[in-house]
């Protein structure tokens, strides 16, 4: 039996952020369908946040529309009269079309109604990004400001990176923002990275399998900023370092007689001595101490340095209210582009689906364990853009499937039969439900695998 230690407080905070974020996204998405349907005189029978099989948590009928909240927090829907949708209301479709029904409207009106949800999500994503720029500005770490170069993890070292390398360019093109180095390698298929290593320019070749390896190990931060060995800011209770006598404020200057200047040097020294006793030379005030610590099999002794906020110089661009909108639009475009490239990696076979897909647990885990509004809105904007992109795919049961049939009708002048739409809807629902179950299964497999 596997026993999992669960921090329920953190889980609760993550869950609340996830539910609030998706409530906003789903409500505005469905409102897009709702308002355009009403504009074109379609009767909207239901408007629900979350799904309501068998019963709902709340419902109230106003005019022709029943508004409600379901109990399955995986989405939401509007039920438009005379439309072949997830309700599969075949009895209504057997009757003669009524003037207020979706199927009675011209193809161009139906096209607008079906595109409206995607448009709302795009507008929401652009708007959130714009307001984030207006409120917080755009802060980033310039690549040239990594004073001590990078720390390379084991995967990066396996292809030729070394701790202390200073990034010059990717595929011989300078990269202004350090975080974009990883994105260029993973998503743009960069074949080389140029680095300054002790004053010498070195070309690090990137193998074609590297992006897949990164996704497999779930760590896109294969390169991170290199920091000095600052005084300790964290010493975890009950961990080996605490037992050995380490204290917050201690500064480690050596391990087993070897000088330590950077934190990665200390980590490497400890990692190379798993299961052994190591002796650290420590400055504590005016005293120099030697503390011996037993390194466990995982190499983690339970300390972290207190890295000051100004350890590396970031760049902050402030935006006025009107200036923020073009900036938000550009940020939204970059989000869409990066997600399209991620899908391309999956469909090209460079990344395995079972290593990159995730369900609601994976999405919920992206939120921090402590409530942070900047992160919350950033993830909400990201999910809004992704939801728009996924919904417009020409798959039956998604908005894009309905859009495809409308376009075919407008081009050929022939409307698909209700039976064709029913079969397509059923196939699409089976595919989507299967994908959701598969993604959720991967979530649970990863959870219990840990």
UniProtKB/TrEMBL annotation:
Q: Which UniProt keywords apply?
A: Hydrolase, Membrane, Metal-binding, Metalloprotease, Protease, Transmembrane, Transmembrane helix, Zinc
Q: Which InterPro entries match?
A: PDZ_sf, Pept_M50_Zn, Peptidase_M50
Cofactor annotation: Zn(2+)
Residue span(s) of domain Peptidase M50: 18-434
Among its keywords, does the record have ATP-binding?
A: no
**Transmembrane among keywords:** yes
Q: What is this protein called?
A: Zinc metalloprotease
Q: What is the lineage of its organism?
A: Bacteria, Pseudomonadati, Bacteroidota, Chitinophagia, Chitinophagales
């Amino acid at each position: 039996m596997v026993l999992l230690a669960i921090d329920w407080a953190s889980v609760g905070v993550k869950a609340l952020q996830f539910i609030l974020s998706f409530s906003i996204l789903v409500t505005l998405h469905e409102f897009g369908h709702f308002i355009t349907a009403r504009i074109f005189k379609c009767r909207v029978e239901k408007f629900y946040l979350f799904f309501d099989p068998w019963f709902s948590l709340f419902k109230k009928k106003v005019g022709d529309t029943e508004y409600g909240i379901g109990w399955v927090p995986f989405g939401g829907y509007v039920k438009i009269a005379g439309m072949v949708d997830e309700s599969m209301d075949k009895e209504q479709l057997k009757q003669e079309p009524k003037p207020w029904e979706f199927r009675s409207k011209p193809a161009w009106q139906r096209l607008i109604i079906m595109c409206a949800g995607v448009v709302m999500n795009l507008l929401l994503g652009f708007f959130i990004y714009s307001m984030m720029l207006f409120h917080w500005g755009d802060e980033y770490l310039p690549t040239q400001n990594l004073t001590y170069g990078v720390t390379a993890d084991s995967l990066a070292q396996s292809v030729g990176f070394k701790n202390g390398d200073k990034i010059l360019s990717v595929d011989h093109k300078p990269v202004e923002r350090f975080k974009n180095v990883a994105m260029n390698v993973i998503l743009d298929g960069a074949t080389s990275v140029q680095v300054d290593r002790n004053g010498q320019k070195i070309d690090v070749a990137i193998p074609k399998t590297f992006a897949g390896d990164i996704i497999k190990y779930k760590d896109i931060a294969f390169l991170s900023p290199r920091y000095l060995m600052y005084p300790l800011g964290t010493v975890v209770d009950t961990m080996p370092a605490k037992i050995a006598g380490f204290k917050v404020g201690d500064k480690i200057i050596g391990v087993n007689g070897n000088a330590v200047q950077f934190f990665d040097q200390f980590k490497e020294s400890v990692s190379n001595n798993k299961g052994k006793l190591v002796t650290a030379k420590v400055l504590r005030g005016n005293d120099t101490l030697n503390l011996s610590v037993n390194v466990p099999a995982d190499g983690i002794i339970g300390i972290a340095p207190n890295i000051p906020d100004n350890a590396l110089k970031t760049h902050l661009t402030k935006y006025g209210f009107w200036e923020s909108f073009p900036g938000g639009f550009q940020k939204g475009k970059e989000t869409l582009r990066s997600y399209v490239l991620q899908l391309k990696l999956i469909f090209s076979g460079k990344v395995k689906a079972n290593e990159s897909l995730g369900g609601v647990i994976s999405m919920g885990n992206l939120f921090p364990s402590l409530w942070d509004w900047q992160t919350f809105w950033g993830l909400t904007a990201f999910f809004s853009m992704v939801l728009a992109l996924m919904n417009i795919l020409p798959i039956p049961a998604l908005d894009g499937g309905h859009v495809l049939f409308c376009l075919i009708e407008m081009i050929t002048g022939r409307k698909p039969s209700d039976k064709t739409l029913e079969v397509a809807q059923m196939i699409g629902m089976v595919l989507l439900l299967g994908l959701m179950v598969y993604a959720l299964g991967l979530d649970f497999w990863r959870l219990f695998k840990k």
